[in-house]
Each structure stands twice: as structure tokens, then as C-alpha cells.
Amino acid sequence: MHPGLGAWRRAGYAIGFFFHEAAQSLLALLGKPNALADAECWFNAYGSWVIIAKGFTPIPFKLITITSGLLKFSFPIFIAACVLTRGARFFLVALVVKKFGPAMLPVIEKRLALFAGLAIALVVIGLVGSHFLGGGSGGACPA
Questions:
Q1: Which of 82, 56, 89, 87 is nearest to 67 (CA)?
Q2: Does the residue 71 lie in any domain?
Q3: Three-class DSSP category at 26
């Protein structure tokens, strides 16, 4: 992994963090003054899972870094989740290449989104099922 990538994650977080007030003003102009607070509440409850799940998909990670800063997600937890998910993804790719050879790289790149999507869908189904079958609360944030 390139040593400067961690700096870019921190920069993305900072971009979101410092645009918080501008985003709040924009949402108020659009008639949604509570939207950012609602999103912050939800992201504080589930943000770690979002970061970890996103780390395995080919969607640009910058979206999560900026969103995490904008929603004022805990910076230490953000860094830990980034290291965990990105490190796991790169080690997983390295393990597959070591076991099956470099010829597997195109297969990994082509199918990574599919496998990640299936894994995320299974986790979401399991969480939703456990919420409804286990009599979970009404949600992470007050209505």
C-alpha cells in the first residue's frame, strides 16, 4: 500500500469535517434542517459497519472518507475501520494471488464487487432478521 494513502483518507475526512456548517446551511435552504443531524445519528450508530463494508467494494473510498468527516464520525474509530477494511481487502487479494497465481487478478477485479455485494447483502439480511425476530428497538435514533 502506498504510504501517502493514509494521508488522503485523513484529508478526505477533513474536507467533510470542515464543510459541515456549509452542508447544514444548504440543507436548511432545501427545507431539510434536521437531515444532517439525523444522518449523524445513524452514521454514529452504523458508521463502522458502513466503512468496513465499503472497504471491500470497488466504489471510490473517498466517498466514505468525506462522509465520515461531514457527519463528524469518531476519528479514531474511522482510522481503525479504514486500516481494518483496506488491510483485509489487500491481504485477501494477496492470499488469492499467492494461492492461485497472478492469473487470478483479472477474475478478482471482475468479481470483487459481486462477492462483496453478496457478503454485505447476507449481513444486512441477518441483521434485519435478527432485529425483527429478536424484538429489536425502533432504531438507533429517536424519531
A1: 82
A2: yes
A3: helix
